[in-house]
Amino acid sequence: MPRFRLILEYDGAAFVGWQRQDNGDSVQAALEAAALAYSGGAVQVLASGRTDSGVHALAQVAHLDLPRDDPPQTVRNALNAHLKPAPVAVLDCQPVADDFHARFSCLGRCYLYRILERPAPLVLARGRAWWVPPGRGGRLDAEAMAEAATHLLGRHDFTSFRASQCQADSPLRTLDGLSVRAVEGGLEIRAWARSFLHHQVRNMVGTLKLVGQGKLAPGEVAIILAARDRARAGPTAPPEGLYFAGALYPDAALVGADFGAPPPGWADGKSRADSSR
Amino acid sequence: MPRFRLILEYDGAAFVGWQRQDNGDSVQAALEAAALAYSGGAVQVLASGRTDSGVHALAQVAHLDLPRDDPPQTVRNALNAHLKPAPVAVLDCQPVADDFHARFSCLGRCYLYRILERPAPLVLARGRAWWVPPGRGGRLDAEAMAEAATHLLGRHDFTSFRASQCQADSPLRTLDGLSVRAVEGGLEIRAWARSFLHHQVRNMVGTLKLVGQGKLAPGEVAIILAARDRARAGPTAPPEGLYFAGALYPDAALVGADFGAPPPGWADGKSRADSSR
C-alpha cells in the first residue's frame, strides 16, 4: 500500500486534540473517517506530534497508507472533500518511502505561540491568539522575555514546566531554540526541540509573560528551572495561542510553515539528541 | 452631552449588517444596547458607512452622544464589557466636537478585500477571505488585475457594478483608488472613494477576479463600465473577504487601519467630490 505524507492545518478549538479519544472529536478521527470514506480502507493516520485540545496546527505532519494508489493531488483533494465541514485541511500530500514514519522519523518539532496586546478584546483574531491587554507598565517587554528564554536553552530537567499529568518517562529535554519577537500588535514566540513535555511550551510562555510584565526578572527563570518544581513557574498559557508549526526529518530539512530561522543544527536535518516521546 | 468618536472592529458573519433591522442582529443594535446598559441612555450610534451582512470591519468609524462624561478609556472599556459576547470591539474612543458626524463629516471610505489562493479549503482563515483555488492557469494574474483596475478610476456611471437593490439617487461615483497587491498566499485589493454604490466593491472585485483568471482582458473592463449594464460585469464577490478599513475626515487625515498608501488628495484630508450616500 502506498504511503503518503500529509501537511495539515486545523483549528484546535473544534477538537479534543490530535489523538482519538472517547470523549469527543479528534483531528485523527476526522482524518481517518475521511480516508475511509475516500479509500474504503480502515486507515490509521499518525502525526509527528500530538496536540492538546484547543491547540491549532499551521503545519502538522502526518502519514497514512492507502489501499489505492492515486496521484497525490487526488488524495489531497479527496481527503479535503470528505473532511468537510470539519476545520481540518490537507495543505500538501506527497508520496513517501515505506520507512517514513511521521512520529518515529521525526527529529524535531516546532511550535509558534501568538500573543496579541491591545486594550480591546479580540474579534477577528478571537481564538487565534492569547489576548493580553497592556497593563499599567504598558506592553510586554520582549527584550526581557528573550533574555529569560536563553536560560531555558539546552538540555535540562524541565519538571518546573511539565504538566502534572505528563506521561513521559523522563523530565529531561533539550530545548534547541526559544525566540521572542515583537510583531505588529503583539509577540510571536517560537520553540524548537526534538520533543516537548506535556504543556511545556504553554508553561514556558506563561512564565515568559510574567517576565514581560516585570513580575519576574529574566534571571529568575534560571532559578525556576533549577527548582524542578511546577509550582514555581508561571501559569499555563491558554491553548488558543499555540500552533504546531513544523517538523524536522532526516535529509528533508523542515517540513511545515515558515516559522523563522531555525536554530543551529536544524538547517542540515539534525537536532540535538533526545528520545522521542 | 459629550460626543465620542469610536473605531470599531467586527466580524460581519454574526450580523445582518451594520444597520438596525427587524430580521436579525445588527452591529448598530449591539452597540446601542451596550451604550444603554452602560450609560442608562437611549443612545444612537451612527457609522461612517453601512456594511452589508457578512462584511467585516477592521476599522469602522462611528459616533455617539453619552449622557455621562467619563474619560474616553472608561467609555471604551465599558462598551467592550457590555458588548460581550458579540463579536464587536471598540478599538479606540476619542472625545470629538459636537459638529463631528461619522457619516456626514466623512470625506472618504476605504475597503480592503482579501483573496487567498491555495488548493486546500481555508481553515484558520475561514470566513476571513475569499478562497479562490488556483485554476489550470495557476494563480491569479495580479498585474493584469491592476491594469484592469486603472480603467475604473475617476468619475463614472457605475451602473455595471451596482446592485439591483441599490437605493442611491445617482449611479455616478468617483473612484479615487483601486489597488491590487500580491501578498503571501493571495491578493489584497483596496478601494478608496467618497462613497460607493451598493455592492460596488464586491462587484468590482468579482470582475477583476475574472481578469486575473484570464477570462477577461484588462481592457474589457472599460467596455463593461461603459455598457452601464450589470449583466456585463462579473459576479458579486462573497462578503467574507470584505473589510471596512477606514474613513477620511476634514483635517483628521485617515481614521482607521493601515491600508496602504492612500490615493492623491487623501493625505491632506480631501477626496474628490461626490455627494455622500
UniProtKB/TrEMBL annotation, chains A, B:
<dbReference type="GO" id="GO:0160147">
    <property type="term" value="F:tRNA pseudouridine(38-40) synthase activity"/>
</dbReference>
<feature type="domain" description="Pseudouridine synthase I TruA alpha/beta">
    <location>
        <begin position="9"/>
        <end position="104"/>
    </location>
</feature>
<keyword id="KW-0413">Isomerase</keyword>
<dbReference type="InterPro" id="IPR020094">
    <property type="entry name" value="TruA/RsuA/RluB/E/F_N"/>
</dbReference>
<comment type="similarity">
    <text>Belongs to the tRNA pseudouridine synthase TruA family.</text>
</comment>
<feature type="binding site">
    <location>
        <position position="111"/>
    </location>
    <ligand>
        <name>substrate</name>
    </ligand>
</feature>
<dbReference type="InterPro" id="IPR020097">
    <property type="entry name" value="PsdUridine_synth_TruA_a/b_dom"/>
</dbReference>
<comment type="function">
    <text>Formation of pseudouridine at positions 38, 39 and 40 in the anticodon stem and loop of transfer RNAs.</text>
</comment>
<feature type="active site" description="Nucleophile">
    <location>
        <position position="52"/>
    </location>
</feature>
<comment type="subunit">
    <text>Homodimer.</text>
</comment>
<dbReference type="InterPro" id="IPR020103">
    <property type="entry name" value="PsdUridine_synth_cat_dom_sf"/>
</dbReference>
<protein>
    <recommendedName>
        <fullName>tRNA pseudouridine synthase A</fullName>
        <ecNumber>5.4.99.12</ecNumber>
    </recommendedName>
</protein>
<dbReference type="InterPro" id="IPR020095">
    <property type="entry name" value="PsdUridine_synth_TruA_C"/>
</dbReference>
<feature type="domain" description="Pseudouridine synthase I TruA alpha/beta">
    <location>
        <begin position="148"/>
        <end position="250"/>
    </location>
</feature>
<keyword id="KW-0819">tRNA processing</keyword>
<dbReference type="GO" id="GO:0003723">
    <property type="term" value="F:RNA binding"/>
</dbReference>
<dbReference type="Pfam" id="PF01416">
    <property type="entry name" value="PseudoU_synth_1"/>
</dbReference>
<dbReference type="GO" id="GO:0031119">
    <property type="term" value="P:tRNA pseudouridine synthesis"/>
</dbReference>
<dbReference type="InterPro" id="IPR001406">
    <property type="entry name" value="PsdUridine_synth_TruA"/>
</dbReference>
